[in-house]
Design goal:
Isopropylmalate Dehydrogenase, binds magnesium ion, 2 domains, single chain, two-stranded antiparallel sheet, 12 helices, binds 3-isopropylmalic acid, 368 residues, 10-stranded mixed beta sheet, 40% helix, alpha/beta, IsoPropMal-DH-like_dom
Length: 368
Protein backbone atom coordinates (compact mmCIF):
# COMPACT_ATOMS: atom_id res chain seq x y z
CA UNK A 1 0.00 0.00 0.00
CA UNK A 2 1.32 3.45 -0.81
CA UNK A 3 2.10 5.92 1.94
CA UNK A 4 -0.52 8.48 2.87
CA UNK A 5 0.09 11.76 1.06
CA UNK A 6 0.53 15.24 2.48
CA UNK A 7 0.69 18.54 0.64
CA UNK A 8 2.57 21.21 2.59
CA UNK A 9 1.62 24.81 1.85
CA UNK A 10 3.83 26.75 4.24
CA UNK A 11 2.72 30.16 2.93
CA UNK A 12 4.00 33.50 4.15
CA UNK A 13 5.56 35.17 7.19
CA UNK A 14 6.37 32.69 9.94
CA UNK A 15 4.61 29.91 7.96
CA UNK A 16 7.80 28.42 6.49
CA UNK A 17 9.62 28.55 9.84
CA UNK A 18 6.97 26.80 11.87
CA UNK A 19 6.38 24.31 9.05
CA UNK A 20 10.09 23.51 9.09
CA UNK A 21 9.60 22.05 12.56
CA UNK A 22 6.59 20.03 11.41
CA UNK A 23 8.75 18.52 8.66
CA UNK A 24 11.24 17.36 11.28
CA UNK A 25 8.39 15.70 13.14
CA UNK A 26 7.05 14.05 10.01
CA UNK A 27 10.55 12.65 9.42
CA UNK A 28 10.70 11.44 13.01
CA UNK A 29 7.52 9.40 12.46
CA UNK A 30 9.07 7.85 9.35
CA UNK A 31 12.34 6.99 11.13
CA UNK A 32 11.07 5.96 14.54
CA UNK A 33 7.48 4.80 14.11
CA UNK A 34 7.61 3.34 10.63
CA UNK A 35 4.95 5.81 9.64
CA UNK A 36 6.03 7.39 6.36
CA UNK A 37 4.22 9.99 4.34
CA UNK A 38 4.62 11.10 0.74
CA UNK A 39 5.21 14.79 1.22
CA UNK A 40 5.05 17.39 -1.54
CA UNK A 41 5.23 21.15 -1.21
CA UNK A 42 3.77 24.12 -2.99
CA UNK A 43 2.91 27.80 -2.63
CA UNK A 44 -0.13 29.59 -1.22
CA UNK A 45 -0.84 33.22 -0.36
CA UNK A 46 1.51 36.11 -1.02
CA UNK A 47 4.41 33.91 -2.11
CA UNK A 48 2.16 32.28 -4.73
CA UNK A 49 1.06 35.71 -5.88
CA UNK A 50 4.69 36.80 -6.22
CA UNK A 51 5.46 33.81 -8.43
CA UNK A 52 2.21 33.28 -10.36
CA UNK A 53 0.16 36.44 -9.91
CA UNK A 54 -2.48 34.48 -8.02
CA UNK A 55 -2.62 33.42 -4.35
CA UNK A 56 -3.43 29.84 -5.38
CA UNK A 57 -2.40 28.39 -8.72
CA UNK A 58 -4.85 25.97 -10.38
CA UNK A 59 -2.19 23.23 -10.29
CA UNK A 60 -1.84 23.68 -6.53
CA UNK A 61 -5.62 23.54 -6.15
CA UNK A 62 -5.67 20.29 -8.14
CA UNK A 63 -2.91 18.79 -5.97
CA UNK A 64 -4.80 19.75 -2.80
CA UNK A 65 -7.81 17.80 -4.09
CA UNK A 66 -5.68 14.68 -4.59
CA UNK A 67 -3.82 14.32 -1.31
CA UNK A 68 -4.95 12.77 1.96
CA UNK A 69 -4.23 15.95 3.91
CA UNK A 70 -3.08 19.50 3.33
CA UNK A 71 -0.91 21.18 5.98
CA UNK A 72 -0.99 24.96 5.76
CA UNK A 73 1.24 27.44 7.60
CA UNK A 74 -0.08 30.98 7.32
CA UNK A 75 -0.83 33.54 4.61
CA UNK A 76 -0.55 37.30 4.30
CA UNK A 77 1.73 40.21 5.04
CA UNK A 78 1.78 44.01 4.87
CA UNK A 79 3.39 44.03 1.43
CA UNK A 80 0.14 42.54 0.07
CA UNK A 81 -2.24 44.97 1.78
CA UNK A 82 -2.78 47.07 -1.32
CA UNK A 83 -3.39 44.20 -3.72
CA UNK A 84 -6.75 43.93 -5.38
CA UNK A 85 -9.22 42.03 -3.18
CA UNK A 86 -9.45 39.19 -5.72
CA UNK A 87 -5.76 38.30 -5.41
CA UNK A 88 -5.15 38.97 -1.73
CA UNK A 89 -3.32 36.13 0.06
CA UNK A 90 -6.46 35.24 2.08
CA UNK A 91 -8.33 34.47 -1.14
CA UNK A 92 -6.00 31.49 -1.63
CA UNK A 93 -7.04 30.04 1.70
CA UNK A 94 -10.73 30.74 1.10
CA UNK A 95 -10.53 29.04 -2.30
CA UNK A 96 -9.02 25.92 -0.73
CA UNK A 97 -11.77 25.81 1.88
CA UNK A 98 -14.53 26.32 -0.66
CA UNK A 99 -13.35 24.06 -3.48
CA UNK A 100 -12.36 21.24 -1.13
CA UNK A 101 -15.75 21.78 0.53
CA UNK A 102 -14.22 21.80 4.03
CA UNK A 103 -17.42 22.64 5.79
CA UNK A 104 -16.49 21.63 9.32
CA UNK A 105 -13.76 23.64 11.01
CA UNK A 106 -12.61 22.22 14.33
CA UNK A 107 -10.96 24.76 16.60
CA UNK A 108 -10.04 23.36 19.97
CA UNK A 109 -9.48 25.87 22.75
CA UNK A 110 -7.46 24.10 25.32
CA UNK A 111 -5.60 25.55 28.26
CA UNK A 112 -2.25 23.95 28.90
CA UNK A 113 -1.62 23.67 32.65
CA UNK A 114 1.82 25.18 32.29
CA UNK A 115 0.33 28.26 30.63
CA UNK A 116 -2.80 28.91 32.72
CA UNK A 117 -1.13 32.02 34.15
CA UNK A 118 -1.02 33.56 30.68
CA UNK A 119 -4.73 33.92 30.38
CA UNK A 120 -6.30 37.31 30.79
CA UNK A 121 -8.83 35.49 32.99
CA UNK A 122 -8.30 34.16 36.49
CA UNK A 123 -6.46 30.88 36.62
CA UNK A 124 -9.35 28.88 38.11
CA UNK A 125 -11.63 30.04 35.30
CA UNK A 126 -9.37 28.59 32.59
CA UNK A 127 -7.26 25.84 34.18
CA UNK A 128 -8.15 22.55 32.53
CA UNK A 129 -10.30 24.22 29.90
CA UNK A 130 -10.95 22.00 26.89
CA UNK A 131 -13.62 23.12 24.46
CA UNK A 132 -14.09 22.51 20.77
CA UNK A 133 -15.56 25.14 18.49
CA UNK A 134 -17.04 23.72 15.32
CA UNK A 135 -17.27 26.55 12.81
CA UNK A 136 -19.18 26.19 9.54
CA UNK A 137 -16.54 27.10 6.98
CA UNK A 138 -17.84 27.10 3.43
CA UNK A 139 -21.02 29.14 3.49
CA UNK A 140 -22.73 31.97 5.35
CA UNK A 141 -21.77 35.57 4.89
CA UNK A 142 -18.25 34.67 3.71
CA UNK A 143 -19.59 33.28 0.46
CA UNK A 144 -23.25 34.34 0.11
CA UNK A 145 -24.48 36.19 -2.98
CA UNK A 146 -25.16 38.98 -3.75
CA UNK A 147 -21.93 40.52 -2.60
CA UNK A 148 -19.94 43.50 -3.75
CA UNK A 149 -19.69 47.26 -3.67
CA UNK A 150 -22.38 48.84 -5.84
CA UNK A 151 -23.49 52.31 -6.89
CA UNK A 152 -26.83 53.30 -5.44
CA UNK A 153 -28.00 56.79 -6.28
CA UNK A 154 -25.13 59.12 -5.54
CA UNK A 155 -23.28 56.86 -3.12
CA UNK A 156 -21.89 53.36 -2.92
CA UNK A 157 -23.25 50.47 -0.92
CA UNK A 158 -21.28 47.47 0.37
CA UNK A 159 -23.24 44.21 0.39
CA UNK A 160 -22.64 40.75 1.85
CA UNK A 161 -25.28 38.12 2.28
CA UNK A 162 -25.77 35.66 5.10
CA UNK A 163 -27.23 32.55 3.54
CA UNK A 164 -27.59 28.99 4.82
CA UNK A 165 -29.40 26.03 3.32
CA UNK A 166 -30.86 23.31 5.52
CA UNK A 167 -28.38 20.75 4.24
CA UNK A 168 -25.44 23.02 5.03
CA UNK A 169 -26.66 23.38 8.61
CA UNK A 170 -27.44 19.66 8.91
CA UNK A 171 -23.99 18.46 7.93
CA UNK A 172 -22.07 20.74 10.27
CA UNK A 173 -24.51 19.95 13.09
CA UNK A 174 -23.87 16.22 12.57
CA UNK A 175 -20.16 16.84 12.70
CA UNK A 176 -20.56 18.63 16.04
CA UNK A 177 -22.78 15.93 17.53
CA UNK A 178 -20.38 13.18 16.41
CA UNK A 179 -17.48 14.98 18.06
CA UNK A 180 -19.46 15.58 21.24
CA UNK A 181 -20.11 11.86 21.55
CA UNK A 182 -16.36 11.30 21.74
CA UNK A 183 -15.90 14.10 24.28
CA UNK A 184 -18.19 15.55 26.94
CA UNK A 185 -21.43 14.73 25.05
CA UNK A 186 -22.68 18.34 25.08
CA UNK A 187 -23.33 20.71 22.18
CA UNK A 188 -24.19 24.39 22.44
CA UNK A 189 -25.38 25.91 19.16
CA UNK A 190 -24.93 29.65 18.70
CA UNK A 191 -26.71 32.02 16.28
CA UNK A 192 -28.79 35.15 16.49
CA UNK A 193 -32.27 33.77 15.98
CA UNK A 194 -33.58 36.91 17.68
CA UNK A 195 -32.59 39.10 14.73
CA UNK A 196 -31.69 36.89 11.75
CA UNK A 197 -33.89 34.54 9.72
CA UNK A 198 -30.81 32.46 8.94
CA UNK A 199 -30.44 32.12 12.71
CA UNK A 200 -34.03 30.93 13.09
CA UNK A 201 -33.45 28.26 10.45
CA UNK A 202 -30.10 27.34 12.02
CA UNK A 203 -31.68 26.76 15.43
CA UNK A 204 -34.58 24.77 14.00
CA UNK A 205 -32.36 22.50 11.89
CA UNK A 206 -29.81 21.84 14.65
CA UNK A 207 -32.68 20.93 16.98
CA UNK A 208 -34.20 18.61 14.36
CA UNK A 209 -30.90 16.81 13.71
CA UNK A 210 -30.57 16.39 17.45
CA UNK A 211 -34.11 15.07 17.95
CA UNK A 212 -33.94 12.61 15.09
CA UNK A 213 -30.34 11.36 15.30
CA UNK A 214 -28.56 12.47 18.47
CA UNK A 215 -31.00 12.43 21.36
CA UNK A 216 -28.26 11.03 23.59
CA UNK A 217 -26.26 14.28 23.26
CA UNK A 218 -27.20 17.24 25.44
CA UNK A 219 -28.12 20.21 23.23
CA UNK A 220 -28.55 23.85 24.20
CA UNK A 221 -28.94 27.04 22.14
CA UNK A 222 -27.53 30.46 22.84
CA UNK A 223 -27.52 33.79 21.06
CA UNK A 224 -23.99 34.32 19.83
CA UNK A 225 -23.49 37.58 21.70
CA UNK A 226 -24.55 35.94 24.95
CA UNK A 227 -22.26 33.05 23.99
CA UNK A 228 -19.33 35.45 23.75
CA UNK A 229 -20.19 36.77 27.19
CA UNK A 230 -20.48 33.27 28.66
CA UNK A 231 -17.15 32.29 27.08
CA UNK A 232 -15.49 35.05 29.07
CA UNK A 233 -17.51 34.46 32.22
CA UNK A 234 -17.30 30.69 32.68
CA UNK A 235 -15.91 28.91 29.61
CA UNK A 236 -15.81 25.50 31.26
CA UNK A 237 -19.61 25.25 30.91
CA UNK A 238 -19.01 24.39 27.24
CA UNK A 239 -17.93 21.19 25.56
CA UNK A 240 -18.65 21.54 21.82
CA UNK A 241 -19.89 24.83 20.36
CA UNK A 242 -21.35 24.76 16.85
CA UNK A 243 -21.84 28.01 15.00
CA UNK A 244 -21.77 29.69 11.60
CA UNK A 245 -18.81 30.96 9.61
CA UNK A 246 -18.66 34.55 10.85
CA UNK A 247 -19.66 33.96 14.49
CA UNK A 248 -17.22 31.05 14.52
CA UNK A 249 -14.43 33.31 13.30
CA UNK A 250 -15.04 35.74 16.16
CA UNK A 251 -15.83 33.27 18.92
CA UNK A 252 -12.80 31.11 18.11
CA UNK A 253 -10.43 34.06 18.37
CA UNK A 254 -11.92 34.99 21.72
CA UNK A 255 -11.77 31.40 22.97
CA UNK A 256 -8.18 31.06 21.76
CA UNK A 257 -7.09 34.15 23.62
CA UNK A 258 -8.65 33.13 26.87
CA UNK A 259 -6.58 29.96 26.93
CA UNK A 260 -3.54 32.22 27.01
CA UNK A 261 -2.17 30.18 24.16
CA UNK A 262 -2.98 31.89 20.88
CA UNK A 263 0.34 30.74 19.45
CA UNK A 264 -0.46 27.20 20.46
CA UNK A 265 -3.82 26.37 18.96
CA UNK A 266 -4.28 24.10 15.96
CA UNK A 267 -7.27 23.61 13.69
CA UNK A 268 -8.67 21.04 11.32
CA UNK A 269 -10.98 21.78 8.41
CA UNK A 270 -12.81 18.68 7.31
CA UNK A 271 -15.05 17.83 4.39
CA UNK A 272 -17.00 14.80 3.30
CA UNK A 273 -15.28 11.39 3.20
CA UNK A 274 -13.30 10.60 0.04
CA UNK A 275 -13.29 7.19 -1.68
CA UNK A 276 -10.73 5.88 0.79
CA UNK A 277 -13.01 6.83 3.68
CA UNK A 278 -10.81 9.70 4.85
CA UNK A 279 -12.35 13.15 5.02
CA UNK A 280 -10.97 15.82 2.74
CA UNK A 281 -8.84 17.76 5.15
CA UNK A 282 -6.72 20.82 5.71
CA UNK A 283 -4.84 21.49 8.94
CA UNK A 284 -3.52 24.87 9.98
CA UNK A 285 -2.55 26.82 13.08
CA UNK A 286 -5.13 29.36 14.25
CA UNK A 287 -2.50 32.11 14.41
CA UNK A 288 -1.58 34.25 11.43
CA UNK A 289 1.61 34.96 9.52
CA UNK A 290 3.05 37.35 12.17
CA UNK A 291 5.12 39.36 9.66
CA UNK A 292 6.66 41.41 12.48
CA UNK A 293 8.68 38.44 13.72
CA UNK A 294 9.02 36.49 10.46
CA UNK A 295 12.44 35.17 9.56
CA UNK A 296 13.91 35.71 13.02
CA UNK A 297 13.54 32.24 14.46
CA UNK A 298 11.26 33.58 17.19
CA UNK A 299 7.97 32.02 16.18
CA UNK A 300 6.28 29.35 18.27
CA UNK A 301 5.92 26.19 16.14
CA UNK A 302 3.56 24.45 18.58
CA UNK A 303 0.25 25.39 16.91
CA UNK A 304 1.52 24.05 13.60
CA UNK A 305 2.89 20.90 15.25
CA UNK A 306 -0.42 20.32 17.05
CA UNK A 307 -2.17 20.77 13.71
CA UNK A 308 -0.14 17.82 12.45
CA UNK A 309 -1.26 15.91 15.57
CA UNK A 310 -4.86 16.60 14.48
CA UNK A 311 -3.95 15.24 11.03
CA UNK A 312 -2.64 12.06 12.66
CA UNK A 313 -5.95 11.74 14.50
CA UNK A 314 -8.54 12.76 11.90
CA UNK A 315 -6.89 11.85 8.59
CA UNK A 316 -4.55 8.98 9.36
CA UNK A 317 -6.34 6.99 12.09
CA UNK A 318 -3.30 7.37 14.33
CA UNK A 319 -5.00 8.52 17.51
CA UNK A 320 -2.33 6.97 19.74
CA UNK A 321 0.44 8.74 17.83
CA UNK A 322 -1.50 12.01 18.05
CA UNK A 323 -1.70 11.48 21.82
CA UNK A 324 2.05 10.85 21.86
CA UNK A 325 2.79 14.09 20.04
CA UNK A 326 0.42 16.13 22.21
CA UNK A 327 1.98 14.62 25.34
CA UNK A 328 5.46 15.53 24.05
CA UNK A 329 4.34 19.15 23.65
CA UNK A 330 2.86 19.19 27.17
CA UNK A 331 6.05 17.68 28.56
CA UNK A 332 8.22 20.36 26.99
CA UNK A 333 5.97 23.10 28.33
CA UNK A 334 5.90 21.53 31.77
CA UNK A 335 9.71 21.52 31.67
CA UNK A 336 9.57 25.29 31.29
CA UNK A 337 10.74 25.52 27.68
CA UNK A 338 9.34 28.73 26.20
CA UNK A 339 9.45 30.54 22.91
CA UNK A 340 9.45 34.33 23.16
CA UNK A 341 5.63 34.65 22.88
CA UNK A 342 5.26 32.60 26.07
CA UNK A 343 7.67 34.45 28.28
CA UNK A 344 6.14 35.74 31.46
CA UNK A 345 8.56 34.47 34.04
CA UNK A 346 11.55 36.68 34.51
CA UNK A 347 14.89 35.08 34.07
CA UNK A 348 13.70 32.52 31.53
CA UNK A 349 15.63 32.68 28.27
CA UNK A 350 13.47 32.00 25.22
CA UNK A 351 14.30 29.18 22.86
CA UNK A 352 14.21 29.64 19.10
CA UNK A 353 11.66 28.08 16.75
CA UNK A 354 14.01 25.24 15.86
CA UNK A 355 15.12 24.67 19.45
CA UNK A 356 11.47 24.24 20.41
CA UNK A 357 11.09 21.69 17.60
CA UNK A 358 14.20 19.85 18.79
CA UNK A 359 12.95 19.73 22.37
CA UNK A 360 9.66 18.24 21.20
CA UNK A 361 11.54 15.63 19.20
CA UNK A 362 13.65 14.82 22.25
CA UNK A 363 10.41 14.34 24.21
CA UNK A 364 9.11 12.08 21.43
CA UNK A 365 12.31 10.03 21.64
CA UNK A 366 11.89 9.78 25.38
CA UNK A 367 8.35 8.48 24.89
CA UNK A 368 9.55 5.34 23.09
C1 LIG B 1 -9.36 32.51 10.20
C2 LIG B 1 -8.91 33.77 9.54
C3 LIG B 1 -9.48 33.79 8.12
C4 LIG B 1 -10.98 33.88 8.24
C5 LIG B 1 -8.93 34.89 7.22
C6 LIG B 1 -7.41 34.83 7.15
C7 LIG B 1 -9.51 34.78 5.84
O1 LIG B 1 -9.30 34.87 10.30
O2 LIG B 1 -9.06 31.43 9.67
O3 LIG B 1 -9.97 32.60 11.26
O4 LIG B 1 -11.55 34.97 8.39
O5 LIG B 1 -11.61 32.83 8.15
MG1 LIG C 1 -10.15 34.36 12.19
Amino acid sequence: MSNPSILILAGDGIGPEVMGEVKKIINWYGDKRDLSFDVSEDLVGGCAYDKHGTPLHDDTMAKAQEVDAVLLGAVGGPQYDDLDFSVKPERGLLRLRKEMDLYSNLRPAQCFDALADFSSLKKDVVAGLDIMIVRELTSGIYFGEPRGIFEEGNERVGINTQRYTESEIERVARSAFELARRRGNKVCSMEKANVMESGILWREVVQRVHDTEYQDVELSHMYADAGAMQLCRWPKQFDVIVTDNLFGDLLSDAAAMLTGSLGMLPSASLGAPMENGRPKALYEPVHGSAPDIAGQGKANPIACILSFAMALRYSFDQGAEADRLEAAVEKVLADGVRTADLLADEGVTPVSTSEMGDKIIAALDASL
